[in-house]
Amino acid sequence: MPEKMKFEMEFMLRSSNKILFNSLSTADGLAEWFADEVSAKDDIFIFRWDGNEQRAKVISKKNNEHIKFQWEDEENTFFEFLIKTDPLTQEVALLITDFADEDEVEESKFLWNNQVNTLKQRLGA
């Protein structure tokens, strides 16, 4: 199986870290923008899109700062949300790290842009 390429994206948001983190780390928050349906039990999240289901485990988390998920069926890949606040301007940036096959990186970035636009609308950001 070919190795996936890591890529990162950054988005500026007008939101508090606490409200943004809730949208990134809870089943209800993720269901508003990331997947059609999301459920969670302990550190296992179940994401559903168009009848397809994927499971991911939370492998790292620091409240109001970051959360990292690892897909159940993929050992060496993860997706991570990192919240950074500029100490001078108090601007909030969401950094997303993900992996995709080399020929699917641009499509994955396009999907993340669409999803984050939905997140911005939900947050009023």
Offer a concise description of the structure:
26% of the residues lie in helices and 42% in strands.
Overall geometry: globular
Rg to the nearest angstrom? 14 Å
**Order of adjacent strands in the largest pleated sheet:** 1-7-6-5-4-3-2
**What's the number of extended β-strand segments?**
7
Structural class of the secondary structure composition? alpha+beta
Spans where pLDDT lies below 50 across 5 or more residues = none
Q: How would you classify the quaternary structure?
A: single chain
How is the main sheet built?
Answer: 7 strands, antiparallel
The portion of residues forming beta strands comes to 35-45%
How large is the count of helical segments? Answer: 3
Helix content: 25-40%
Distance between the termini: 39 Å
* Helix/strand order: EHHEEEEEEH
How confident is the prediction overall: mean pLDDT? Answer: 93
Topology:
Layout: E1 5-13, H1 17-25, H2 27-31, E2 37-41, E3 44-49, E4 52-62, E5 66-71, E6 79-85, E7 92-100, H3 105-123
Antiparallel strand pairs: 1-7, 2-3, 3-4, 4-5, 5-6, 6-7
